[in-house]
Amino acid sequence: MPDPTGSGRIDDDGTFEEQRERVDYPMRRLFDEYGRANAAPLSLGLLASLVAHTIALLPPIVLGVAVDAVFLAEQPYELPLIPGAIIPETRGGQFWFSAALVAGAFLLSSTFSWIKGRGLNVFAQRVQHEVRTDTYAAMQRLDLDFFANKQTGELMSILNNDVNRLEQFLNGGLNIATQLVVTVGGIAVVLLYLNLQLGVIALVTVPIIALFTHLFVQRIQPLYAEVRSTVGRMNSRLENNLAGIDVIKVSNTENFEAERVTDSSREYYDTNMEAVRTRIKFFPGLQLTAGVGFVLTFVVGGIWVFSGPPGVLSGSLSVGTFVTFVFLGQRLVWPMAQFGQLINLYQRAEASAERVFGLMDEPSHLSTDDDVPDLELTRGRVEYDDVSFSYDGEADDEPVIEGIDFTVDAGETLALVGPTGAGKSTVLKLLPRLYDVSESTDSDGSSPECTEGDGGDSGAVRIDGQDVREVDPGSLRRAIGYVGQETFLFFGSVADNIRYGSFDADREDVIEAAKAARAHEFITDLEDGYDTDVGERGVKLSGGQRQRIGIARVLLQDPEILILDEATSDVDTETELQIQKQLDRLAADRTVLAIAHRLSTIKDADEILVLEDGRIVERGTHGELVEADGLYAKLWGVQAGQIEDALGARSDEGRSEVGRP
Ligand code: ADP
Fold it and tell me: Which CATH class is domain 17-360?
């Protein structure tokens, strides 16, 4: 097993260091966890590979015997494991018998090769599939903090490249390994058995080639690691550029970006060429070494057959045995050359397995015991009890929000307002547990007892008296609908996107929800109506259209509690008024927590909290807050001015569209 701290490891950039260090013996674990579950195709494949490669050794042996017995008539026709009774008496009969044996060996060997191919491929494909789905499922459970700190490209590369590399090793590597063991081991046994001294000469290059390969691997591994880093950098650049293509175009930076891509690609070219130069020297060198061994065997064997044992050698060597030596000696070259490839595949697979299992083992801060009860919704009362939170997870750090304390009674609306960065979104993310209330470092976990009024904790978020960390997350999120600043649309049709999360809703429900969200009109105007593909991330729709689809999605879900995060920020004033009407109707019998920059939309909220720097600085109804003449009143004053401006400009067509993306 290679040294896990060796320099030639994959991804030496350290980005996944922590995860990889957690995993001990990744390859053993791969076979333990996934090999066992797929033991049938694995053992079938390995067994068939063993048989196929063993049978492939037979023809040279039969040929050698035939030369001595049939053509030269120097020795009796004898083959190990074949009873003398079935061997024909005549030389003609023996010739055809040999031919039949050789043909049979090829036929059997091919058949077993086919079984091997099936077994190992089925095994490798199944493991690949299982590892990928397990890794994805494990990753999906992780909290958003994890995703904020990891690049998407990096995670994609684990789910794609690393998982594929495991498959390559399990299929190709295992085949090479059995071939190597059977061919080199089998040939060694046969040659040493036929003629010990010439056998030693024929095999003398094997340890040399092994050493040669070892040195090659030592040299090429760091180069490969460098190549992989440059590939990673190039991919990040390409991915980044494709995602930001519209910015590149409007900034007129095509040339600049083309140059940057050229630089990345050039870096890849240079490092790759260095690896190529090393690699292309290796294989001819290997061939040469094997060739030297082969010529040596041929010369020594030839002299031996002609004029008796040369030098210190003794005994006799028949022409047939010589022929067998020549044929089998040649067979050694290819598997030995594959040895380097095997080591390469193994090391790559090991590094990949480390990353894959590292990701699988990543602990989620949002973990909840499996046997927690479902959320029992009685009224939909939401309560924040002295909540503090910081994104790096420890309450002792500078908190992003602090001492947030409020209650929203069933069916009421609470609005959060305040400057950008005040922590409004953060407050609301704690409700569906996109993040968890921070735990102070000296607390002993998330036990509910220690969150109740105890001075050292960071509070609790409760729905109908139940701590959100103490209920099944599925039941929690079913109760909460979320309309965010950006509605993410998944690849698929408009209808699929509305139905997302309420998969058993039928067509009529979808249309009804779209109508209620004022989306029906524009959807029916689309090329294929509800079946129109939205394009990647919904780029074919405007921001306002996407938002209306998001609202329809939540309407269909029909949750008790609604979170509106600047839900109407992305639409023109006219649409906003319409949507607001729908939302008001929707909100009437639900508990609503809303964030809005446009204060007009939350004027009627039952309570308004004004946040600044993560703290509640004012609270009350619209009337009370205006009266108090604080931050809210100031904001209101500014916005009321804007509204008047906007109303004044109503007649000016298109003004209401200003600010739309
Ligand atoms: P608001 O919704 O009031 O504009 P946010 O709740 O989005 O404010 O942000 C509050 C603060 O938390 C900001 O300083 C922001 O930079 C920070 N913040 C937001 N999201 C993250 C995150 N995922 N990781 C670290 N810091 C964050």
Answer: mainly alpha
